[in-house]
Amino acid sequence: MRMSADAGGAIRQDRRVVRSRRAIVQAFEQLLAERPLDKITVSAIAQRADVDRKTFYQHYGSISGLLDAIAWDFAARVLDEVERTCAANGRTDAAPEMLRAFFHALAGNLSANMARERGFFEHVPTEVLYERLRAPFERQIVDRGLIAGIIADDIREPALAFVLGGMLALMRDWLEDGDARAIDEVVSLACALTERGLAGIALGDGDEAAGSALMSERSGVS
Questions:
Q1: CATH number for the segment(s) 1-61
Q2: Which neighbouring-strand residues pair with 202?
């Protein structure tokens, strides 16, 4: 089967796009391992990636756009793994299993390349890192229906903020301690700290009204 000239050109173009984006992301991660986020410029990224500034702007628009793209891809990798794990275990609708799978996937992806991830934790302000990750995780979790029927819609946002914020704090603490704990210990600690709390507000895992009342009490709503 022969490929048309237009199709062949499109494939070559797609490959160039993939190569350029990969080079830009790798250059950014290398720079982030060396310096704080606010000291990284588009010019420095382009020079390290061996592309021109125009190419960078075509793909990402800004460093903020680059961060958003990296966060979206990271969330997708984590949640793909969560779905595979839950499907393999035959449990896709139970809060404890879903939470444990999420923590394992999140910790595993964060610890897969510590030299790279350390740059994000050390050189990106905590509030920036959290905000960049929160939006794509929340959007993709909802779009995939991962917590449908588990966590009520009206408390979904604070529940996800609690889980994601807590895990990021534990991972930062783990890195600052020089990886003294095994990653499995960190996951177990995260599960122990959050499973009981979320179980109290999970649909079907106790008194829903009591769970909602507890959330209202904690947020100062009467």
A1: 1.10.10.60
A2: 151
Structural contact between residues 107 and 183, judged by C-beta atoms closer than 8 angstroms:
yes
Q: Is 61 left (phi over 0), alpha (psi -120 to 50) or beta?
A: left
pLDDT tens-digit map of 86-122? 888 776 556 667 777 888 888 778 777 666 777 888 8
Among left, alpha and beta (phi > 0; psi -120 to 50; other), residue 202 is: beta
Sign, Cα dihedral of 50, 53, 57, 62: positive
Q: Give the angle 50-55-61 at the CA atoms, nearest 5°.
A: 125
pTM of the model as a whole: 0.76
Is residue 124 helix, strand or coil? coil
Angle CA 146–85–88, to nearest 5: 110
**Can you give 22-66 as a three-state secondary structure string?**
HHHHHHHHHHHCCCCHHHCCHHHHHHHHCCCHHHHHHHHCCHHHH
What dotted CATH number matches 63-219?
Answer: 1.10.357
Residues across the chain? 222
For the chain, the structural domain boundaries read: 1-61, 63-219
Query: Chain-centre distance of CA 150, in angstroms?
Result: 20
Question: H helices within 61-182, ranges in order?
Answer: 63-89, 95-111, 114-123, 126-144, 156-176
